[in-house]
Amino acid sequence: QVQLVESGGGLVQPGESLRLSCAASGFTFKMYAIRWYRQAPGKARELVANISPAGSSTSYADSVKGRFTISRDNARNTGYLQMNSLKPEDTAVYYCNAYFASSIYWGQGTQVIVSP
């Protein structure tokens, strides 16, 4: 049973922080790169952050650099996205993606709303 389950979303005010989690099961998590995407209503899905299988390399969209941090704990089969200094434009459904070769898995998404 392959699963990716996001959690940690919610409603916060601008400037506050959230940590999203991506719990994986049913596959060899440590072999997969992890990516976080987000999709706001009426907008295309966009890549937010990426982390390599061992966690040695990370990359970020320009819009979140300096505010978001992607990480992973392979012993717990879990990926994370720490989101600081949240802005209203960060409002979206956030999705976790795991990729290795031709295998791609998606989670169900978790809602993040940033509003006064």
What does this structure look like?
The protein has 116 residues and is an all-beta fold. It has strands spanning 3-7, 10-12, 18-25, 33-39, 46-51, 58-60, 68-73, 78-83, 92-100, 103-106, 110-114. 0% of the residues lie in helices and 53% in strands. The strands form two sheets. Strands 2, 4, 5, 6, 9, 10 and 11 form a seven-stranded mixed sheet that branches. The chain has a four-stranded antiparallel sheet with strand order 1-3-8-7, with no helix packed on it. A hairpin with a 4-residue loop joins strand 7 (68-73) and strand 8 (78-83). The N and C termini lie far apart (40 Å). The relative contact order is 0.32.
Strand element count? 11
Question: How do the helices and strands follow one another from N- to C-terminus?
Answer: EEEEEEEEEEE
In helices, the fraction of residues equals: under 10%
Structural class: mainly beta
What value does the Rg take, in angstroms? 13 Å
Uncertain segments = none
> What's the mean pLDDT score?
97
Q: Report the biggest beta sheet as strand number plus sense, adding barrel if it closes.
A: 7 strands, mixed
Short recap of the structure:
This protein is mainly β and 116 residues long.
List keywords for this structure.
116 residues, mainly beta, seven-stranded mixed β-sheet, four-stranded antiparallel β-sheet, 53% strand
Secondary structure layout plus pairing:
Elements: E1 3-7, E2 10-12, E3 18-25, E4 33-39, E5 46-51, E6 58-60, E7 68-73, E8 78-83, E9 92-100, E10 103-106, E11 110-114
Parallel strand pairs: 2-11
Antiparallel strand pairs: 1-3, 3-8, 4-5, 4-9, 5-6, 7-8, 9-10, 9-11
